[in-house]
Specification:
- With 107 residues, the protein is mainly β.
- It is built from no helices and 7 strands.
- The strands form 2 sheets. A 4-stranded antiparallel beta sheet has the order 4-3-6-7, with no helix packed on it. The protein has a 3-stranded antiparallel beta sheet with strand order 1-2-5, with no helix packed on it.
Amino acid sequence: AGAGMSLSADASAGSHSIMISGSTDRSDPVMVIVTAPNGNIVAIDQVTPSNNSYSTTIGVGGNQYKQDGMYTIFVQQSETNKQMPGILDAGIWGFWHFKYRIHINSK
């Protein structure tokens, strides 16, 4: 069994971006999705891990970030063509799915 996957997010007050990073024991692409408090997707990215880590920067400016409240960062990674035990999510084995919440005040 591998080490799994981790997620961290770094954003400073007044910043126009969020740095998302983590580690993984898999080489499959990592999907990053950010949703607004109302559930709408406001950002999406896909990154390929390198040396067991991944990172991306998501911009937080524009109309899609005008809602005050908790924005959710979802990070997921699936293992292709393998059926190994992992986290069971929607009936798919070997699928990592994490979420992280941040509060944005648009004023």
